[in-house]
């Protein structure tokens, strides 16, 4: 019976749904993480009686049909790119983005990746880098004798040097935006890379052209809401159980039919 296959597609879809939800919950404390959701579509139908076909010589039209579906399929797990909560950390090199932009990161092979994670560090040369040691663009080096680092809302990086009353400006962090930021490809380590779906990167300065502004001494938290994820998890679990119940009921029907044939 086709119901077995139909219910099996439902179980597989909900299994993937639970995997997506579990990844969201696992990353509730991941800086700058953007939650995903599973999206589904129904599969092809067998049209036993097509709607709108003529049913008599007088031209009567069939008002309803008989369409038998074959299940469900997963079509995507898009990311919800809404703003996460910004919490203070007190670290000079922690920077949160309030708005649409991404930090631009140079990878070891010379390519670029993008992130919302502003928990930066200094490497052995004083350069501002990510936790993996990748260079934040544009490259800014902090002098070893600097006593404090200030990053304003426009991304301008200044330091205080002993003996100087005027802060020294070292450079300015840039931000990058995309036409379709949900089309970025995640590669792990809180990084994304551009794809044909995301559009070309558009570099700019904070507070300009809707790129957002920066907030030092803070980090953007994941936009995962525990209550939403738990309720979605319960709904996915119940949907899985109902599909399993369909398989059990279909099996019982097949057993009954087999017993009738044997008798």
TrEMBL record:
<dbReference type="InterPro" id="IPR053967">
    <property type="entry name" value="LlgE_F_G-like_D1"/>
</dbReference>
<keyword id="KW-0282">Flagellum</keyword>
<dbReference type="InterPro" id="IPR037925">
    <property type="entry name" value="FlgE/F/G-like"/>
</dbReference>
<dbReference type="InterPro" id="IPR019776">
    <property type="entry name" value="Flagellar_basal_body_rod_CS"/>
</dbReference>
<keyword id="KW-0966">Cell projection</keyword>
<dbReference type="Pfam" id="PF22692">
    <property type="entry name" value="LlgE_F_G_D1"/>
</dbReference>
<feature type="domain" description="Flagellar basal-body/hook protein C-terminal">
    <location>
        <begin position="216"/>
        <end position="259"/>
    </location>
</feature>
<feature type="domain" description="Flagellar basal body rod protein N-terminal">
    <location>
        <begin position="4"/>
        <end position="34"/>
    </location>
</feature>
<dbReference type="Pfam" id="PF06429">
    <property type="entry name" value="Flg_bbr_C"/>
</dbReference>
<keyword id="KW-0975">Bacterial flagellum</keyword>
<dbReference type="InterPro" id="IPR001444">
    <property type="entry name" value="Flag_bb_rod_N"/>
</dbReference>
<protein>
    <recommendedName>
        <fullName>Flagellar basal-body rod protein FlgG</fullName>
    </recommendedName>
</protein>
<dbReference type="InterPro" id="IPR010930">
    <property type="entry name" value="Flg_bb/hook_C_dom"/>
</dbReference>
<dbReference type="Pfam" id="PF00460">
    <property type="entry name" value="Flg_bb_rod"/>
</dbReference>
<dbReference type="InterPro" id="IPR020013">
    <property type="entry name" value="Flagellar_FlgE/F/G"/>
</dbReference>
<keyword id="KW-0969">Cilium</keyword>
<dbReference type="GO" id="GO:0071978">
    <property type="term" value="P:bacterial-type flagellum-dependent swarming motility"/>
</dbReference>
<comment type="similarity">
    <text>Belongs to the flagella basal body rod proteins family.</text>
</comment>
<dbReference type="GO" id="GO:0009426">
    <property type="term" value="C:bacterial-type flagellum basal body, distal rod"/>
</dbReference>
<dbReference type="InterPro" id="IPR012834">
    <property type="entry name" value="FlgG_G_neg"/>
</dbReference>
<comment type="subunit">
    <text>The basal body constitutes a major portion of the flagellar organelle and consists of four rings (L,P,S, and M) mounted on a central rod. The rod consists of about 26 subunits of FlgG in the distal portion, and FlgB, FlgC and FlgF are thought to build up the proximal portion of the rod with about 6 subunits each.</text>
</comment>
<feature type="domain" description="Flagellar hook protein FlgE/F/G-like D1">
    <location>
        <begin position="96"/>
        <end position="159"/>
    </location>
</feature>
């Amino acid at each position: 019976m086709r119901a077995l296959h139909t219910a099996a597609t439902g179980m597989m879809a909900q299994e993937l749904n639970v995997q997506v939800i579990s990844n969201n919950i696992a990353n509730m404390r991941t800086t700058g993480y953007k939650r995903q959701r599973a999206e589904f579509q129904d599969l092809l139908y067998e049209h036993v009686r097509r709607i709108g076909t003529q049913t008599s010589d007088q031209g009567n039209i069939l008002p309803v049909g008989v369409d038998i579906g074959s299940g469900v399929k997963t079509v995507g797990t898009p990311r919800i790119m809404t703003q996460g909560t910004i919490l203070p950390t007190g670290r000079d090199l922690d920077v949160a983005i309030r708005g649409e932009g991404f930090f631009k990161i140079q990878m070891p092979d010379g390519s670029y990746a993008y992130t919302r994670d502003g928990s930066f560090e200094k490497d052995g040369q004083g350069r501002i880098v990510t936790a993996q040691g990748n260079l934040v663009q544009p490259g800014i080096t902090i002098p070893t004798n600097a006593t404090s680092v200030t990053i304003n809302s426009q991304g301008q990086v200044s330091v205080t040097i002993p003996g100087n009353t005027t802060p020294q400006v070292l450079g300015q962090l840039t931000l990058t935006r995309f036409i379709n930021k949900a089309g970025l490809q995640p590669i792990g380590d809180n990084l994304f890379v551009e794809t044909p779906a995301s559009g070309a990167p558009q570099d700019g300065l904070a507070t300009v052209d809707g790129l957002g502004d920066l907030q030092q001494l803070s980090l953007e938290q994941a936009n995962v809401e525990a209550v939403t994820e738990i309720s979605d998890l319960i709904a996915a679990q119940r949907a899985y159980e109902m599909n399993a119940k369909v398989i059990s009921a279909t099996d019982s029907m097949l057993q009954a039919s087999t017993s009738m044939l044997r008798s």
